[in-house]
C-alpha cells in the first residue's frame, strides 16, 4: 500500500503522482496535511520530507519513504516495471526529460505560480515576465522534441507525466499561445485523453 501525502489543493507536482498511481494501478491511501497557524506543515512531517513540501509517499510494502515528485515517479516506475524502458538507451532518454522537468520547467513554473498568487503591487512586472519568457523557451524545446512523435521519448513514460501538468496550464498561467507550438499542443491533447489523467483532475 502506498501512502500519499498531499494537501487539499492539487498542485501540478501532486497531480503527477495521482496520474502515476492511476497508470500503475497500485493501491494507495491519501494523507491530507493541513498547515498550522504559522503557515507551515506539521512538525512531524519533516521526518517524511525534511523540505516540508508535498507530495511525498511511504511504501508500506518496502518501508521506502520518497519525496520530490520526480523521485516518486521514478520509484513507482521501478517498483511496477512500467513506464520506464528496460533498455539503457531508452531509459536514458526518459530520464533526461524527467530531469529536464525537475531541474528547469518545474522550478520556473513553480516560481511563476507563486508570483501569480501575490497581490499585483507586491511584485514587479519584470520578474513575472522573466519567468514567462523562460517557460516560452521551454515550450519551444518541448515542441522540437515532440516533432514526429506522440510522446516525449516515443512511448508514454514518466517523463510525459512529469511535464504534462505544468504544460497543460501554460496558456492560462503564462499567457502562452499553444497554437505557436503545434507539437506541444497535440501532445497535451493526447496525454489529456488518457483515463488516468481524467481521474487526476
What's the gist of this structure?
The chain is an alpha+beta fold and 201 residues long. It is 53% helix and 9% strand.
Can you give keywords for this protein?
4-stranded mixed β-sheet, 201 residues, 8 helices, 9% strand, Glutaredoxin, Glutathione S-transferase Yfyf (Class Pi), Chain A, domain 2, 2 domains, alpha+beta, single chain
Task: Explain what you see.
The chain has a 4-stranded mixed beta sheet with strand order 2-1-3-4, covered by helices on one side. A hairpin with a 4-residue loop joins β3 (56-59) and β4 (64-67). The mean pLDDT is 91. It folds into 2 domains: 2-80, Glutaredoxin (3-Layer(aba) Sandwich); 88-194, Glutathione S-transferase Yfyf (Class Pi), Chain A, domain 2 (Up-down Bundle). The chain is built from 8 helices and 4 strands. Helices cover 53% and strands 9% of the residues. The two termini are 22 Å apart. With 201 residues, the chain is an alpha+beta fold.
